[in-house]
Amino acid sequence: MILPRNISRRHDQVYTAGNYNTHSLVFNTLGVMLHGKTKYFTNIATIIKHGWGQVFKTLQTLVHALGAGSISMGVVVSHEESCASRHLKQCVLEQNIPMTSVYWIIKSLYAGQLISLEEKKNSMSASY
Predict the structure, then answer these.
(1) Closest CA to 54 of 72, 38, 35, 36
(2) Nearest to 56 by CA among 77, 89, 92, 31
(3) Are the C-beta atoms of residues 105 and 77 closer than 8 Å to each other?
(4) How many CA atoms lie within 13 A of 27 on its CB side?
(5) Is the pTM of this model over 0.85?
(6) Which of 2, 87, 90, 104 meets the CB 3.0–4.6 Å disulfide criterion with 100?
(7) Residues with Cβ < 8 Å from 108, sequence gap 6 or more?
(8) Does residue 25 sit in helix, strand or coil?
């Protein structure tokens, strides 16, 4: 988020986290497990955290957070959905956690809200 700054003023305004509406943050109450190369996902993890999302290192911690109610939605994000192992896909399917590509995160940022995963599936099938 880029904060406005007026160079002509001597005193800069200070913005605190309390000034923001938590409902307007894109990844509020979203839990994400990133699967893929660490260097690639470091920046994505930072973006998710700035939008008040939580990033989990393992599927187990994501599932526990969903069960505890600390997050309302969990998603497994990989660089490309086809790169995920069969074992991960099976575990995600058993837990009813959606799996998507990193482009879903980017499109959600661009839209300013979470895009439903059904819309993503429809747009993917329409492109073939």
Answers:
(1) 72
(2) 31
(3) yes
(4) 24
(5) no
(6) 104
(7) 26, 27, 114, 115
(8) coil
> Which residues, other chains included, contact 49 with Cβ-Cβ below 8 Å and sequence gap of 6+?
55
Count the residues in the chain.
128
Token pair listed for 80: 């490309």
Q: Which residues contact 22 (CB under 8 A, 6 or more apart)?
A: 28, 52
Token pair listed for 101: 């590509």
CA angle 61, 103, 60 (to 5 degrees): 10
- Stretch 55-79: mean pLDDT, rounded? 92
**Is 30 in contact with 71 (CB distance < 8 Å)?**
yes
On the question of pLDDT at 124 being above 60, the answer is no
